[in-house]
Write a structure and sequence with these properties.
By secondary structure, the chain is α/β, with parallel strands linked by helices. The strands form 3 sheets. Strands 1-10-9-8-11-12 form a 6-stranded parallel β-sheet, with helices on both faces.
């Protein structure tokens, strides 16, 4: 049954569940994440292989952990040309967009005469990209992760992705990795993949940073291992809000509500509108649209729309916008009469797609924007994946004699005040040594 709520009538516990989304699931999985992480840290490849046999491929062996050049060649041969061309076309847009994000490699400014301050930008030394598989294939996720990593100049980019039942990496994901220029792909998924990247095993390398979306299991593992490794932005189960006013065609709103709902049972998808007519008409056509999906995707959608998703009726557009800002969705579609005006009121969202001709699928695949976005309300403080996730900044300073003479007294005075005598001594003794 598709849930229908009126915001003014929601009980506190109902609103809390909507806002939390899959957060409860993630918290409940932390003990399991600890168990898996401990096994991988101690047993290495043996633990990774055991989990792969249990959950992914019964015949999995350690020698299958890394995709070989032959696997890449076979993957390209197995894909139809139109799929390869689509991956290439999407890559071009994604690469062009992310190239524009690159900052200057170094900059300086003169704070005052003789006082120079600036920054040097460098890529992280290594990064692990988590590309999920589930029951589908996600070459688009590979493109969204590998493209900015390569554009940023990361020296070592490795990928982990769950095996098929045959113990192989997905063909389309391998082709997408190759198109991006990434050739180090490990066939491992789930909590064990995150742990392997965090600690390193005999085969899977330890990395400095892990980025990529995943299920509640993956999110729990990343949360647990925060501090052992940089786990990047919180990118968990998919979620979306379709924000409308009374001018939208309800059929479009209903269609787009299904997009993120079909990802999995722990996803969230909400149609938010102040128009009762839009809400009722969308509810009326949703069963017909759901029926057009394969049965296993229908199950996902029905679960989502009866659990963390549904249709929410508010009293006004401003109240709808306030709900959006409180919720901070991963994906936001703005289907209002004047979407650019509405845009000015949106404060929290991973991505904001304007108008009925910019549906979520275009951004997920080929618009150029990065579709790896903060979930679980973290859009209030995190941004989408970009080249910045693969770069770090080092402050760079230089003082001439003039600049040093301007600052030495200030530094010594503040060091005295804060109770750091070595700081102050380093200044005053330097003056004595240098005869200043």
């Amino acid at each position: 049954m598709i849930q229908f709520w009126e915001l003014s009538q929601l009980k506190a516990e109902q609103l809390s569940k909507i806002m939390r989304r899959a957060e409860t699931d993630i918290r409940d999985l932390l003990p399991l994440a600890q168990e898996v992480a401990d096994r991988v840290r101690i047993e290495g490849d043996a633990a990774v292989v055991d989990y792969a046999r249990r959950f992914d491929a019964p015949g999995f062996e350690a020698k299958m952990l890394r995709a070989t050049p032959e696997d890449f060649a076979a993957a390209r041969a197995a894909l139809s040309q139109d799929v390869v061309e689509a991956i290439q076309a999407a890559h071009e847009n994604i690469q062009r967009f992310h190239a524009e994000q690159m900052p200057e490699p170094m900059w300086f400014m003169e704070v005052q005469p003789g006082v120079m301050a600036g920054e040097k930008v460098s890529p992280v030394a290594s990064t692990g990209l988590y590309v999920p598989r589930g029951k589908g294939a996600f070459p688009s996720v590979m493109l969204m992760l590998a493209t900015p990593a390569v554009v940023a100049g990361v020296p070592r980019v490795v990928v982990v992705t769950p095996p098929t039942p045959e113990g192989k990496a997905d063909d389309a994901s391998l082709v997408a990795a190759e198109i991006c220029g990434v050739h180090e792909v490990y066939v491992v998924g789930g909590m064990q993949a995150v742990a392997a990247l965090a600690y390193g095993t005999e085969t899977v390398p330890k990395v400095d940073k892990i980025i990529g979306p995943g299920s509640s299991y993956v999110s729990a593992a990343k949360r647990l291992l925060y501090g052992v490794v940089d786990v990047g932005l919180p990118a968990g189960p998919s979620e979306s809000i379709i924000l409308t006013d009374e001018h939208v065609d309800p059929r479009l709103a209903a269609l787009d509500l299904l997009v993120e709902a079909e990802h999995g049972p722990d996803s969230a998808a909400i149609l938010v509108t102040h128009s009762r007519e839009v809400a009722e008409q969308a509810l009326a056509v949703l069963p017909e649209y759901i029926a057009q999906l394969p049965e296993w995707r229908q199950k996902f959608v029905k679960t989502v729309l009866s659990n963390y998703g549904g249709v929410l009726l508010t009293n006004s557009l401003s109240e709808s916008v306030q709900f959006v800002n409180d919720y901070a969705p991963e994906h936001l579609e703005v289907l209002t009469k004047e979407p650019f005006i509405t845009l000015n009121q949106i404060k929290n969202a991973g991505e904001i797609l304007l108008g009925s001709l910019t549906p979520i699928p275009t951004a997920n695949y080929c618009l150029g924007l990065n579709a790896i976005l903060p979930t679980g309300g973290f859009g209030r403080s995190f941004s989408s994946v970009s080249v910045m996730d693969f770069l770090k900044r080092s402050g760079v300073g230089y003082l001439s004699l003039e600049g040093y003479e301007r600052l030495q007294g200030v530094a010594a005075t503040l060091a005295d005040y804060e109770g750091f005598p070595a700081h102050a001594y380093a200044i005053r003794k330097r003056n004595e040594i240098l005869g200043l």
